[in-house]
Amino acid sequence: MTPQELVVRMLPPFGGWLALAALALPGGSPLRGAAVVLFLAAGPGAALVRVCAPAFAARPAEGPVERRDPGFARRTDLLERLMLTLFSSIAAVMLVATVLIATHTFSAQRVLLTLTLLTTLAAFCPPLRASPTTGTAPRAPRTPKGSAP
């Protein structure tokens, strides 16, 4: 692993720990709110998407038949990862908050701490391996039972 890969891998957990440190700022501080909102919107999802990235790259996007845009797959994959990052972060926040509410232990600090710990754990996970694509040709149509070909 190169130093650049390590830095990219550790950015989401660092954002979480930074958001936890920002809780020491006064309650109405815009810096505190920005750090927490940015982490909650992108941190957990970025760590999850990084773990799943090879599996996503196994099947590239297919463009429309009538248009032959060479950058279509690259832009579509980037948009897909951005949306997956955002929505999986929101899902993680909702899931953790729901569990803490159900156990009567809900607080904003506990949600943030739990998500930071989960994001740190995901940053240490190795990326998933992409399943090999099978290059099988389509089969010939079958004839119904009892009929002659």
Structure description:
Helix content is 64%, strand content 0%. It contains four helices and no strands. Helix 1 runs antiparallel to helix 2, helix 2 packs across helix 3 and helix 3 (72-102) packs across helix 4. The longest helix has 31 residues, at 72-102. It is elongated. The relative contact order is 0.16. The model has no long low-confidence stretch (mean pLDDT 83).
Net shape: elongated
Report the end-to-end length measured between terminal Cα atoms: 58 Å
Q: How much strand content do the residues show?
A: under 5%
Q: What's the pLDDT, averaged over the residues?
A: 83
Summing up helix and strand content along with how strands pair, one would put the structural category as mainly alpha
- Unreliable residue stretches: none
Number of strands: 0
User: Helix-strand pattern, N to C?
Assistant: HHHH
Output the radius of gyration. Answer: 22 Å
| Contiguous helical run count | 4
> What does the largest sheet look like?
none
Amount of helix: 55-70%
